[in-house]
Amino acid sequence: MAKQNREVEFGWFIPTTGDGKYIGVKPERESTGEYMIEVGKAAEQAGFTFALIPTGGSCIDSWIVGSQIAAHTKILKPLVAFRPGLIAPVLAARMAASLDYVSGGRALVNVVSGGAPADLIATGDPLAHNHDERYERTREFLEIVKEVWTRSKRNGEQFLAANSSYGSNEKLSYKGKYYQLDGGASLPAPVQDPHPPLYFGGSSKAGKRTAAETADVYLMWAEPLDWIREQIDEMETLRAELKREKGIERKLRYGLRAQVLVRPTEEEAWREARDIISKVDPAAIERSKARFDNTDATGQKRQNELREQSRNNDFLIAPNLWAGLSTVRGGGAMLIVGTPEQVSDRLLEYVNLGISSFILSGYPHLEEAKITGELLLPLVKRKLAQREGRDPHPFHETA
Questions:
Q1: For residue 214, with 0-12 CB atoms within 10 Å meaning exposed, 13-18 middle and 19 or more buried, which class applies?
Q2: How is 243-303 classified by DSSP, letter by letter?
Q3: What's the predicted TM-score (pTM) here?
Q4: Measured between alpha carbons, how far is 182 from 173 in angstroms, rounded to an integer?
Q5: Cα–Cα dist 45/43, whole Å
Q6: Is 16 helix (H, G, I), strand (E, B) or coil?
Q7: What would the pLDDT profile of 273-332 be if each residue is shown by its tens digit?
């Protein structure tokens, strides 16, 4: 397996559906603009360099939240969502480039091809029930986005001179299965070169192939090491096929989305972990299971499988890796639990496989950002720096 772009980055999570110590019950805190800004500032102060802002029917819009957080932080990069099929590609390109421009080059983009079936239906996605076609559409969507970004670079001086006209060579014509354009163009040009990085999740064959062709960071939910190794090997095979069949050699980084809970002692960490789901009504667990089972998302099916495999072992699926939260929470629910030494060692094991981007979170997100920044990040960054023979102190400056 190739090891590429191995400088490690750490991101946090902005709760846009409420927050609190417990899940599966009504949130204790409302996700007000003031609160989400406070979480963003705490994450930046803790040493995180970016923050994932979720998307979906129950979430406050990620673009609005991302813009607000960028305006109140200096380093933190908002990771906001592209949702192909729910927004036109040129408009999405303009929005991302605009966020990159006003934030001074801090926009990151999370490509979300699917979602909960009910949300896709509610938002009018015509491919709500066509899993693989959604990834075909995403490929076309990103081809257009990248191309208008590239052309806008050539037209950037006109924008800066307050001239919104486009030269004929900057206009894009495109005819695909899902999108047709005649004269497509986007301004302003992105600040980042060549464009804001694209983070991409999708565990199915269709998702992985599209990611290999388009993504900058391929995201996975936390799983046992051998499961992650298998996924990375599949992606590396696809990269090799892309080079062999089309002569295209693309760089690709790998990322991991995980919950973390770090405490000075192992006993305290596990007590706090189990407390997170201590107030859940058993009926809510059954409703959650029914919702998780009704999915066409391969990633969620993998999480379901891990949960069921570990049910008779108190949901312990690997050393310090606990599936207990997945009885209630969908998506990236696997929790890495333990002391700073234990959790940092678990993260380093993922780094050894090729992971270079971590998106972490914990309940409640404000306090856990501070605790993780105090107990975990300095230690794992120091271990990374020491084993690579670097000075550990400037590590947090890397975006």
A1: buried
A2: HHHH------EEEEEEEEEE-SSHHHHHHHHHHTTTT--HHHHHHHHHHHHS---HHHHHH
A3: 0.92
A4: 4
A5: 5
A6: coil
A7: 999 999 998 888 888 777 777 777 888 889 888 989 989 999 999 999 999 999 998 888
